[in-house]
């Protein structure tokens, strides 16, 4: 008499074949899922790298713009300072 706890050992060839087919299907499904995830991962990384390049370019553009504006302000400030100094000298000369 076979114990119900050991019924899995009493599987016939058909049951073993079905179990093997089931495992093969699970393996195939897992491989397809893995391939899908790898493709999605690659696509996400590509998008992120593209976004990083775009942000780096934007940062470079803003840095350049800030440098140019800074130079213009310094130039204007220097020019204005020179103008005021020259004007003071002219006024001092008139007082003499």
What's the SSE blueprint?
Layout: H1 13-95
Protein name: CCDC92 isoform 4
Pfam family, one: CCDC92
GO cellular component, one term: centriole
Q: How many domains comprise the coordinates?
A: 1
Count of strand segments: 0
Share in helix: over 70%
Strand content: under 5%
Radius of gyration: 40 Å
Distance between the termini: 133 Å
SS element count, helices = 1
Largest sheet composition: none
Give the averaged pLDDT, no decimals.
84
Organism: Pongo abelii
Keywords: Coiled coil
InterPro entries: CCDC74A/CCDC74B/CCDC92, CCDC92/74_N
GO cellular component, one term: centriole
Walkthrough of the structure:
- This protein is an all-alpha fold and 96 residues long.
- The protein has one domain (15-95).
- The chain is 86% helix and 0% strand.
- It has one helix and no strands.
- It has one helix spanning 13-95.
- It is rod-shaped and about 125 Å long.
- The N and C termini lie far apart (133 Å).
- The mean pLDDT is 84.
């Amino acid at each position: 008499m076979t114990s119900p706890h050991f019924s899995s050992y009493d599987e016939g060839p058909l049951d073993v074949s079905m179990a093997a087919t089931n495992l093969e299907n699970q393996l195939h499904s897992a491989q397809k899922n893995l391939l899908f995830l790898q493709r999605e991962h690659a696509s996400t990384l590509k998008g992120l790298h593209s976004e990083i390049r775009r942000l780096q370019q934007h940062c470079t553009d803003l840095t350049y713009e800030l440098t140019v504006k800074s130079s213009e302000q310094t130039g204007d400030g220097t020019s204005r300072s020179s103008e005021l100094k020259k004007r003071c000298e002219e006024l001092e000369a008139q007082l003499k």
